[in-house]
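> tool_call: predict_assembly(chains=two)
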Amino acid sequence: MADLSVNFCGLRSPNPFWLASGPPTNTGGQVMRAFDAGWGGAVWKTIGEPIQNTSSRYASIDLNGVRMIGLNNIELISDRPIAVNLREIAEVKKRYPKHLVIASLMVESKRETWHDIVRRAEDAGSDALELNFGCPHGMSERGMGAAVGQVPEYTEMITSWAKEVAKTPVISKLTPNVTDITHIALAAERGGADAVSLINTINSLMGVDLETFAPRPNVAGKSSHGGYCGPAVKPIALHLVSSVAKKVKIPIVGIGGIGNWIDVAEHIALGATSVQVCTAAMHYGFRIVEDMADGLGAYMDDHGYRTIEDFRGRAVPNVLDWGDLDLNYKIIAKIDTDLCIGCQLCYVACEDGAHQCIECAHAQNGNGKHNPNGMEVHVPKIIEDECVGCNLCALVCPVHGCITMAEIDTGLPPMSWKQKTSASRAS
Amino acid sequence: MLRETAPKLPPEQYEKNFAEISPRMTPRQAAVEAARCLFCFDAPCTVACPTHIDVPSFIKKITTDNLRGSARVILEANIMGHSCGRVCPTEVLCEGACVMHEKEEKPIEIGRLQRYAVDHVLENNIELFHAGAPNGKRVALVGSGPASLACAAELAKLGYRATIFDSNELPGGLDTLGIAAYKLRAKDSLREVEMVRGLGVEFRQKTTVGRDITFGQLEKQFDAIFIGVGLGETWDLNLPGEDLTGVVGAMEFIEPTKVLSLPDISIGRRVACIGAGNTAIDVVTAAKRLGAEIVHLIYRRGEQDMPAFRYEYDLAKLDGVVFHWHTQPVRILGDAGRVAAVECVRTQFEPASGASRGKLINIPGTEFTLDVDMVVRAIGQKPVTEFLRAVPGIALRENGTVIVNERRQTGNAKFFAGGDCVNGGKEVVDAVAEGMAAAHGIDAWLGAPRQ
């Protein structure tokens, strides 16, 4: 059986599944229920001087009846007194000594204030500290959150303040709302951070009520930009996690769009040591961790990975600059006539949206395929000589496995753009 | 008076029995169903529809709650989209062609979605179409069924002054008077008629062409005439006892269920229906729902030969109808002038041999009787041959249907025709397609006059 435990900056976590700082970790009661459900760690809802929240706070987008493929929030840090949060952390640690409780912190950008909150959190029993440099809304207007994380110098400075007094590992949490997140990650590393966690939420505005022109989430007819998260942001998170993995030496905590073990494994393959989850727990509750553990364990068993370290970062070397990709690699689309249902979405996608390499099937050139009611099924045809192997047809095809991309032997050795241009310069 | 009538049902039971069989979708149901549509290109559902409604387009509009736009797409292709959404045999048309069958999923409920969109505009009195600028030309339409309504509406949009002549009191033809009420209520059909009237089409009901106005007069007063008279009386059984009280034709049987208060309709305690087409199914289900205790469907061929669609057959089975396959009625027995029983004989198919193509024969000694109080003839309708022959120059096929060219023009250039009187009896949607095609045929023949 695979061992799911991880060693994070010298701390042992029963598994890599942590709840991210957010509504699910607002209280000790929630965190304890989460641990009972199987979560290995929890990053407490950010502690700082209590704030007052708006009503409402969340908005989402749905797709074809699937709810909440993307969620946004304008909720701020904890609205409960610091003392209450710290007391509950102490209680949780007492009852769950083997689970990781990480205090997320956000205070005014003053050295003494940071020293004070770091000491208090550690005194309460936090296993580690996460510095919230990421919240894109509300707190940033007060010079905190993303206002820090968007400036490498501030990130480095406040990380170093925390490190001046911290006895436990310090994680700097990064905002994606920057031009190049690796600069911020390196600044945190310079500041002494033991790890970085990313991504925090992405700046967003969820929509507008076209009757009242109130943006969403609606607060008395108005709104404000908020942090975007949920399944829709995973690709952005994966890109940023892999970029940071290529630049820093410290551990990375992957966050963004994680809802199942596959998402977890992808974050790990791109360099994350552990992961944090929020939206999926807000959508379905803590119970989702059961299949994360079960599924990830089965995957590792199937592939002979004994520990997370056995496959962590395995995909990072495969993320290259475009200029290093092999231009002589060639694939073309194949349509499985038996599986094709005749919707012709591949045809119209290729014709209008790509490279005009599929022939439309009309009644005149029907291929004799009929549905159970005896009606004709029009199977389109790939013009193989024209196909550029872009994948679009396979992506739009609603039938799993109907359109596959088959490799064609070009007989040419691998050749990247960089090689090609340097070769032509040499000649 | 029938020999024995079924006891009356509790009043609310009639409402229940004749409630619309396929209830309106809720907005949520429609949203979920519409979202399932793959938005096929060159979609097979559109190809399969005789009026070629752009199905993916109207469904896509439902997903964005653009119901007005959705209804416009439907009604532009098929002005009778309201009734077609209810009565079309979608399982052999659009839904039968849906790619979801190949995906091993349930086909999209195109008919119900269509109805959802069109109901929205009709109920909210949203006017989608306007009469075209008058072009000074006049067209008479004989009959007020779907073919004429579609033709008239299309002509009105092109600027023609269209006048419908119909001998019935209520307009709408079989939509109003001849299709099972639980599929299409008369009031829904009439609402659709109002939409056509809203385009400026004039209706002259209770006006029988040939009696109240002659074809000659029509020819003089109008630039073109469209004949959409459908079919006539139900064929006779030619059996002894057919003149007994309680022997009725299918149309005669169904019409009261559409226009009268249901509890006022007398139904036999036991009913036999001869024939196994879709009309026969309308008859037997209506008989059951009116309270008949036993309803027999008698058909001389086998189950696999029945012309009714599978879905219709299932309806009758669910209603508890008793089917007598390979059974031929030989005479109707009476009691004091009223139907008392029908005597039948079993049949079998004698396969082809030599010159014979095979035929159905009665099996001697298999005679039996069914005690019934009513016999309904549902073996098809006769063409109105004599009526049509009154049009000079019109050519008819051997079966009495009108011969038309690709413009839907008859042997008399001024006369066009469409619907059941041309196709011998098909679906509402076919009548609509032919009526619309005739409108364009008339327009082309008259040189497409525009103001």
